[in-house]
Amino acid sequence: MGRSPCCSKEGLNRGAWTVMEDKILTEYVKLHGEGKWRNLAKRAGLKRCGKSCRLRWLNYLRPDIKRGNITRDEEELIIRLHKLLGNRWSLIAGRLPGRTDNEIKNYWNTNIGKKVQDHLSHTSKRSNQVQTQEKQNHSVERSAGGPAEAKIGSSCVVRTKATKCTKAVNVITSEQPIQLDQHNQIIETKPEVEVEVQSSMVHHHDPVDFSQFMLGENNPSNFMMDFELEENFISDLLNMDFSQLPCFEDGGDSGSNTCDKGPLFLNF
DNA sequence: AAGGGTTGCAACCGCTATTCC
DNA sequence: GGGAATAGCGGTTGCAACCCT
């Protein structure tokens, strides 16, 4: 395409922003608003590329930014949304007022992802014997979402760019649902989870043979549901109150909030 | 106290999508 | 319609702070 680089790097500052730079950028954005970042950088007299200015503003200088101290509620929400959306950090951040995609991504990679990894390595030891035969038959496939997603598995992840859709999907997954105890530690759960998704807004084209998505006859754990989502569908999905979903309800007695108590119905 | 290793996070990079002319 | 500019995203890197021996 012959696209020019976002900035010529000569003569531009890189690395950590100084207090003065922050002040200049903040004052300028307050005065003139966001957008046109390349011109903004020039006009504000900042020796930074526009991209860098945009990132600094969005991730650090915006007045509505909440920083640090991610609460347990927020962490649980991140886990739920990640399970649903995968590494769509910006979408996840959109559900957490004041949080940025970068912060959530970092938090996931340094905190939650680690817990999940520990959890999975622990459970994988225990289930090693059972899975040995399956591993011989199927190569381990990585999900499309990168390392963290590969660690967690993606059986409930809704891919927002896809080609096919379904009326109803019924997935029995052997994946371990994630539950946090009151000390924020991942706890063991029952291995079998039934997930059912129903949608009235997705397209109703040809019936889909879901067996084609299965990695193996009895190994749906890496199954990923692919939908072609209409704009209002994904918008509804992201605007709904996740706490109202049966899957995300506490169940009243245990503090658990995952799919271990029965089918998950997503009715749109 | 020192220095080597680890961690957390801000910033950068490369890419795609969208908008504008 | 095509190319450039801009916006936005997710993955990766660099480095300061912290921890451990």
Automatic annotation (TrEMBL):
Region annotation (Disordered) maps to 118-148
- Give the matching InterPro entries: Homeodomain-like_sf, Myb_dom, Myb_TF_plants, SANT/Myb
Q: What is this protein called?
A: Myb-related protein 123
| Family annotation (CDD domains) | SANT
Q: Where in the cell is it found?
A: Nucleus
Any idea which GO molecular function terms this record carries? DNA binding
Q: Where is it mainly found?
A: nucleus
